[in-house]
What we know:
Immunoglobulin-like, 1 helix, mainly beta, globular, single chain, 10 strands
Amino acid sequence: xxxxxxxxxxxxxxxxxxxxxxxxxxxxxxxxxxxxxxxxxxxxxxxxxxxxxxxxxxxxxxxxxxxxxxxxxxxxxxxxxxxxxxxxxxxxxxxxxxxxxxxxxxxxxxxxxxxxxxxx
Length: 120
């Protein structure tokens, strides 16, 4: 289940979407009766994008996000993830397969420094 409609992608690509915070980032939801969270991030030069957190033992490749067309937005649903869980994205670049862990630019909450994870 995607939080981004075709209209959202059109507005995003046009540069006129004014409520991206409702679509990108981590959003608790229920899919087919299973509680979890929908994750979406813009990573236009990514080859692969994953989400990791305590919910998967910080496994960098545990939950892969999927690209939405040519928008550069990647998205996935992860079951059994709840408010308060810390997470980061692991982004693998198209260039030389360079991988880096990133906080969510659309996160509503974050850990206190020096920790850098986002919080649902």
